[in-house]
Write a structure and sequence with these properties.
binds adenosine-5'-triphosphate, binds magnesium ion, single chain, alpha+beta, 10-stranded mixed β-sheet, 2 domains
């Protein structure tokens, strides 16, 4: 048997001869994607998705819901001591709901800060924790707003949260040591580069097709190019609206866009309308084609604003919409001559969380410094 000798260095032993426990890194690296429809958060093996909405309190019967999770029953106290519903609870129960972002940009810094503090409380295991936060904001968010968000987030915060279902409350302290803010698709750019082991910055275009907006970000020599980036209202939401109208015209029956979204997510092309099966594949193909064409046209237009020596080596498609539009976009970007080979159009493995994952990796690099 080989015996291994363990040497305890002086620094690990105190003057009573006791070995000190290694100190685990105390600061959490967190990645956030503050989208127009959902906020995504990743921290190690924890991953959350919350609707990007806050709302007024609307007390009901506590303890009646089967879902008692903090995630879906989250209430935070604002600076005036008023309770505010966050995410799913606001979406389902508030009478006045305020989206955190719309038209491709953040709406209220104050509300976004409140939501961010509330969701940071979800990952805390003790009542005092430190964070380095990397967060993506909608692409049309101005630099001034980003600075305000960063300033507001940095520092110490007393956070009071309550679970609407169980009535349990928690009071905690959060120290946000550092904040990094960039447009959402930058997260996926970073994530894709790091996970594929590419060391150098490659000129790329990142297309993030979400629920309500499609964000397009152009990268040139490692820089985010503002004039060559923008957002579109064509996204998954527009696909379901177009489909819903087409179905209504054909069958005279109303199918809500939301229900269509569920069908699309499950990859169904046969749906039940008024008790009868209806094949929506033709209507779907048509709608996907026309929306994807708008995305490619807009990308082409934005690319005109890049310097002439730019050479697009990668088109990265992310967001939930990449599952529906991805294949068509791959062909369309190739046919539009934006890439030279089809395999230069890539999709990250977790296309919905990839922005947040990238921002978490960025936060981790700040942690080590
Ligand atoms: N596996 C899937 N297949 C098809 N569609 C999906 C899939 N997963 C998510 N989606 C659709 O993608 C949309 C959500 O994508 P994503 O989470 O990227 O949007 P978002 O970030 O919340 O929106 P936005 O970027 O506008 O804020 C939803 O409309 C959903 O129906
Ligand atoms: Mg998004």
């Amino acid at each position: 048997m080989i015996r291994q000798t363990v040497y305890i260095t002086k620094t690990n032993v105190n003057n009573r001869g006791e070995t000190k426990m290694p100190i685990a890194p105390m600061t959490n690296a967190v990645g956030i994607d503050l989208g127009t429809s959902t906020i995504k958060l990743t921290c190690g093996d924890q991953k959350y998705r919350i609707p990007s909405v806050i709302g007024n309190p609307n007390p009901g019967w506590t303890g009646m819901t089967s879902d008692k999770s903090w995630l879906n029953n989250l209430i935070i106290e604002d600076s005036k001591g008023q309770e505010v519903y966050i995410g799913e609870l606001a979406r389902l129960q508030s009478e006045i709901r305020k989206p955190l972002a719309s038209e491709g940009k953040m709406k209220s810094i104050e509300n976004s800060l409140l939501a961010l503090k509330a969701i940071l409380s979800l990952i805390m295991k003790s009542n005092y924790e430190q964070f380095v936060v990397g967060t993506g904001v909608p692409i049309a968010t101005g630099t001034e707003e980003s600075k305000l968000l960063s300033r507001g987030l940095k520092g110490t915060h007393e956070v009071k949260v309550r679970n609407d279902s169980t009535g349990e409350s928690k009071q905690m302290k959060i120290l946000v040591e550092q904040v990094f803010i960039a447009p959402e698709p930058y997260g996926t750019y970073w994530y894709t580069l790091k996970t594929s082991g590419v060391q150098t910055a490659v000129d790329s275009i990142i297309v993030d097709i979400g629920h309500g907006t499609t964000d397009i970000l152009c990268m040139y020599k490692g820089n985010m190019m503002r004039a060559a980036s923008g957002s579109l209202e064509e996204a998954v939401d527009s696909l379901t609206s177009v489909l819903s109208r087409a179905i209504q015209e054909k069958s005279g029956k109303i199918v809500r866009p939301f229900d269509l979204m569920m069908a699309i997510e499950q990859g169904k092309t046969n749906i039940l309308v008024g008790g009868k099966a209806l094949d929506i594949s033709a209507a779907m193909n048509q709608a996907v084609t026309s929306i994807a064409d708008v995305v490619v046209d807009e990308s082409n237009r934005l690319l005109n604003n890049l310097p002439p020596d730019a050479w697009i080596e990668k088109v990265i498609i992310c967001g939930g919409g990449s599952y529906v539009f991805g294949q068509y976009l791959k062909d369309a970007f190739f046919e539009a001559n934006i890439v030279k080979k089809k395999d230069e159009v890539i999709m990250p493995e977790d296309a919905v969380m990839s922005n947040a994952l990238g921002f978490e990796q960025i936060a981790q690099t700040k942690l080590r410094k």
